[in-house]
Structures are given as C-alpha cells and as structure tokens.
Specification:
CATH architecture of the largest domain: 3-Layer(aba) Sandwich
Strand order of the largest sheet: 3-4-5-2-1-6-7-11-12
Number of strands: 18
CATH class of the largest domain: Alpha Beta
Number of domains: 2
Radius of gyration: 23 Å
CATH superfamily of the largest domain: Glycogen Phosphorylase B
Shape: elongated
Structural class: alpha/beta
Strand content: 15-25%
Distance between the termini: 11 Å
Length: 480
C-alpha cells in the first residue's frame, strides 16, 4: 500500500489561533491521523493573532505569486514543526495582518486568496506533494473549486483528491455574483456558474462550491450528516446535500483526552479518577461562584457561547422553575439579551444562580469538574465538544438529541442503569425542564445509581483515535 500525503487546510488551529470548535479540531486531527502509511501536514494563514513564541520559530521557505481574478498577489511560505506535525503558514500582510481574523468587508477576497494560495503552495512544499487536500468550512471552500478549474491540467495536480468538512453550516460565505469574475476569475466557466451561484443567481456561495466540487464531503457527526438533508437543518442547501448524498458522511469529533484529564488537570481544586473523589471540586466551585455550599443540591452548569443556537432561549423560559430543584451556573459571553438576563437572575437569586459573563479556560475546567449536571439544550449542534468534556469529568450531560449530542450521549435507562446522560427530543422549554428534574431526582434520591452513571460517562472513549481511524479509511477510499 502506497503512502498517502494529506494536506489539511484550515483558517485556524489552536494554539496558533482559535475562535471556536474548528480551532480545536484542526489542532488535534492532523497529529491523530498520522500513521506509518499516511502523512498529514497542515496549512494555515499567518494571521496577526499568532503569538510571537510561534512566529519566532517559523522558518521562511520561499515566496510565490497567487493569481486571483485580475490580481497577482505575493505569498510567503513559512514552516513550523510542532507536536509531530509540520505546519505551513501562508503570509500576506494585506490580507492577514489585521486586528481580528474575521469580519471584514473584503472577507470574500481574503478567503479566496487563502484558498488559491493553498492550491499554489502545493508545488513549493519541500519533499511533499499532497495526494489529498482536506479543506474545512467556508474559509477554504474555494480550494476544491480552484483545483478543478485551474490546476487539473498540471500532471501532479490531476491525481489529487479533495475532502471538505463542514463544521458549522450556518456560515457559508455568500457574496454578490460580481465576485465570480472580479475575485474568483470564474466568470467564463459555465460549470462554475452552475455550481457556485445560488438563489436564482442572486449570490455566490463558497460552501456550495465545495460541496459540488469535492470528492468527499463530511460533517463532524453522523447524525448531523443526515440532519442537513432536511429543511430544518439544511440552511437552504438541503436539496444539494440530497443530490450529493452518495459522497456525504459524518465522522464524530474527539477531544484532547491528555489535556482534559481530571487526574492531572492543574486547573482543578482536587484531581480525581473516580466519582467519589470528585466532591471537593463541587465544594470549591460553589465557594468560588458565591453559591450556597451544599453537597445535597444538584449543581447544573452551562459553558457556552450565549446564543439562541445553543438553546439559551429554552433555559431562559424555565430557569426560575429549575432553581426550585437545583443551583445553576452559567459561564460565557454572547448575545446581550442572555448576558443581561443571567446577571438579573444572579442578583435575584444569590446563592442559587451564578452568572460569569466572561471567557475563562481555567474556570470552565473547574465547572466541568465541579458541576453535577451539564446543560446543552442546543437547537442544532454539528458535533459539540462540551458534552464529551463534561462526561470525562464525571458531570452528567442533559442534551437535546440533535447532531453530535445524539451521537455521543447515551440516554439513561432507569430499568437497566445503562447510559451516560439524559436527552430530550423536541426543541421545547418544558421538555428541558422535565429532563433536568428527572436528572435531579436521580441525583438526590438514588446516589448509588448516580455514581454508576458517572462511572459509565467517565469510561467513554472520546479520544481522537476512533475519529482518526475513520478519516484514514476515508482517505484510502478515495483511491480504491
């Protein structure tokens, strides 16, 4: 079996730059997939947010020009070896030296440049030419399009296969059709018109282009791959996913089990390996958050962006009712309406409700370890990592059974004792309330059953190993 070279393209990856779950996945997956017969290298933009400790270690390899519509732009190529992976960084200060990674009037051009530069750089990577180009989310979605339309006539590019992974379908890269010619240089190619233009020609859709042009399309959980073929989850693209269903699949993400390890995590008040040793973390967390210190009261927690997608409108509707059976702690920032409401609840119910309207990695870990129940009532959830982390720390998730939440949380069965959490099906505030009440009853009335549930949750394998095996199979299947 010949060795495969895979180039993994992402706009962000921790610890270089991270704004969300994509940064976690891109940080872990390249190293996890590495094997004797598959070499994975990664390519990122050289963004201004990358800490100096990493930029100092980068080695300049070469520079080249990137044709983009009528433009011919400079691109520098840098290399950094870290964590057993070779990382490449594409440099253009006009596009990438900005205060934030996203949110500019010319993001269409910036992402098109990065996608085209990814294609161009393949011929300059020393001793490595990709057999597979694996692109992620709309920021890199034009790379499979450019590869097919501009590079297939070059012999080494002609055999390259493409994989495109959707981490969040909500963001698609939709722009005025004018850019088809001015930026993308595709105005004279009828196939590009057919596959990039959406809404009766009213917009160019980068993500739709990748779905049309890629050899395989994946999502970050099997259930989400099925859900996006329906109108409720398809974000207007469900017909395209049905059309491309033969190449569409879902592979559940993993988490960094070495970092998220309750036995060694330095952020915790007390490290532990089994549920009975977890208790000091709850006491410490209650003190830290100003909650009444009471081991007998269930502590429910949410660590999240405070948005409607994450189900916080459901929590808002029943939070005060929930407080009759539990304490609640919320950590995160987001929409003003949620931030303000949780501050109000914290003032109205001192000792019962805690609102930490901020981002804190260390506090999030103490919440994972100290809470009893973790709330994830998402409207949709392509994968979700928090429910996996909470189980790793013996905190039982209450989730809406959608996307990766349905794939990763086994509902508790009162008759057999099987399960790893609690779930509800309909996007309904009282279904959330009733499910939380059931979890709280088990906590207060059946401590032995609760500890068994915690052990089962902590025993789940959410490492990247299982995901990596599936990606290796996927890469190999491209050449069968």
């Amino acid at each position: 079996m010949n060795k495969l070279n895979v180039l993994f393209a992402s706009f962000e990856a921790s610890p270089f730059i991270k704004t969300g779950g994509l940064g976690d996945v891109a940080a872990a997956l390249p190293g996890a997939v590495q094997s004797p017969d598959i070499e994975v290298r990664a390519v990122l933009p050289k963004l201004a947010q990358i800490p100096e400790e990493f930029t100092r270690e980068m080695t300049f390899l070469t520079s080249f020009n990137v044709p983009l519509g009528w433009r011919n732009q400079y691109c520098g190529l840098f290399e950094l070896r870290r964590g057993g992976v070779i990382w490449y960084f594409l440099d253009n200060e006009y596009y990438f030296k900005r205060p934030e990674p996203y949110g500019y009037f010319d993001d269409a051009e910036r992402m098109a440049f990065f996608s085209k530069a990814v294609c161009e750089c393949c011929r300059f990577l020393p001793g490595f030419f990709p057999d597979v180009l694996h692109c992620n989310d709309w920021h890199t979605a034009m790379a499979p399009v450019f590869l097919r339309e501009f590079y297939r006539q070059i012999p080494e590019y002609g055999r390259m296969k493409t994989v495109f992974t959707i981490h969040n379908l909500k963001f698609q890269g939709q722009y005025d059709p004018f850019i088809l010619g001015d930026i993308l240089g595709l105005h004279d190619i009828p196939a590009a018109h057919d596959q990039l233009l959406r809404e009766d020609g009213k917009c160019v859709n980068y993500l739709a282009g990748a779905v049309h042009y890629s050899d395989r399309v994946t999502t970050v959980s099997p259930t989400y791959a099925r859900e996006i073929c329906t109108p409720y989850f398809g974000e207007g693209m469900q017909d395209l996913f049905i059309e491309r269903s033969s190449i569409l699949s879902g592979i559940l993400n993993g988490i960094d089990t070495a970092s998220y390890d309750p036995s060694t995590d330095p952020a915790l008040a007390s490290n532990f390996t089994e549920p009975t040793l977890k208790r000091p973390n709850k006491t410490a967390l209650q003190k830290e958050l100003g909650l009444t210190v009471d081991p007998g009261v269930p502590l429910c927690a949410a660590v999240s962006r405070l948005t409607e997608q994450k189900g916080f409108d459901l929590l808002n509707a029943v939070a005060e009712e929930m407080l009759s059976v539990c304490q609640i702690a919320v950590l995160g920032t987001g929409d003003r309406q949620y931030e303000d409401y949780y501050r109000e609840l914290a003032a109205k119910y001192p000792g019962r409700f805690s609102a930490s309207i901020l981002f804190s990695e260390e506090l999030s870990r103490r919440i994972y370890a100290g809470a009893d129940i973790f709330l994830m009532p998402s409207r949709f959830e392509p994968c979700g990592l928090s429910q996996m982390i909470s189980m790793r720390y013996g905190t039982i998730p209450v989730v809406r059974r959608t996307g990766g939440l349905a794939d990763s949380v086994i509902p508790y069965n009162a008759d057999t004792g099987e399960g790893t959490g609690f779930g509800f099906n309909n996007y309904n505030a009282h279904e959330l309330l009733f499910t939380v009440q059931a979890a709280c009853r088990l906590y207060t009335e059946s401590p032995v059953a609760w500890e068994n549930l915690q052990r089962q949750a902590m025993a789940q394998d959410f490492s990247w190993d299982a995901s990596a095996r599936e990606y290796r199979k996927l890469y190999r299947s491209l050449f069968e």
